[in-house]
Amino acid sequence: MLTNIRNKIKRRSRKTGSLYNSLIILLFSASIFTIITLSVLLYKLDKSLVHLETQTKQLSARIEYMDLLQKRVYKEVIAEAMTFAPKGKSIYQLRGDAQTEAQRVLDRLTKHYRVPRYVLPAIRFKGYLQATGDAGAASECEEPITYIFLNEILYLRNYEEYIHIIIPHEVAHVFVCLRGGYEEFSHGPEWKLVMRDLGFREPEAWIRHNIDTEPVYEYKQRLGKLLPPHYNPGRPTIM
């Protein structure tokens, strides 16, 4: 009887040992498979990161190149536009003229309406505004108003028209906003009233301009923009 019990114990021990060994082999195989899989994934991830880094560097270099190209083209366009500007003045003096004239117009309005003197927002010059044909624009009619935008290419080529028409047009927008007309329609009755007070008897006639905007379209085309040929700009809104 003792012999049978011992044999049963030995058989069970053999089965347990065999099961334990199988479990160890299975765990070992799973570990090896997991390590190999992770290694492959890490290799692919590392390769992808290297590729992504290369693409990022190429994109950054391309953007930097395009920025330099844009500056170079803009410099050439401005140099050409300067041949139309008043002689004997640098571009910095001409920019200063716009700021001075705009402040003069604003002071004239504050004196006429007997309100405290307003400080004019800064004027920013750009190669083109929101719409390519725009000659000027004021920032959103909210408080505070940050900028008056002028197209520098058109400003230099049409200095007198800017000084006498477009700058007063934009200052009128600013003045309406500064007086609290933040809900006022762009070229609504308040703006028209201010324009009349500036001497423009028919403000509706000065909502659009007759300036040749072709140089601005040519500038955008030179930058590689996908624009159709524009040989008939029409009468774009001043904004």
Walkthrough of the structure:
With 239 residues, the chain is mainly α. 62% of the residues lie in helices and 5% in strands. It has six helices and three strands; from the N terminus they run ααβββαααα. A hairpin with an 8-residue loop joins strand 2 and strand 3. Helix 2 packs across helix 4 and helix 4 packs across helix 5. The longest helix is centred in the N-terminal third of the chain and has 81 residues. The chain is elongated and about 125 Å long. 22% of the residues are buried.
CATH architecture term of the largest domain? 2-Layer Sandwich
Overall pLDDT: 81
Rg (CA only): 37 Å
Number of helices: 6
Fourth-tier CATH superfamily name of the largest domain? Metalloproteases ("zincins"), catalytic domain
Tell me the number of strands: 3
Largest sheet: 3 strands, mixed
The backbone outline, from C-alpha atoms, is elongated
Main-sheet strand order equals 1-3-2
Give the % helix.
55-70%
Structural class designation: mainly alpha
Just give the CATH class of the largest domain: Alpha Beta
Distance between the termini: 111 Å
**Percentage beta strand:** 5-15%
Question: According to CATH, what is the topology of the largest domain?
Answer: Zincin-like
Question: What is the count of structural domains?
Answer: 2
> What is the H/E string?
HHEEEHHHH
Low-confidence stretches: 226-239
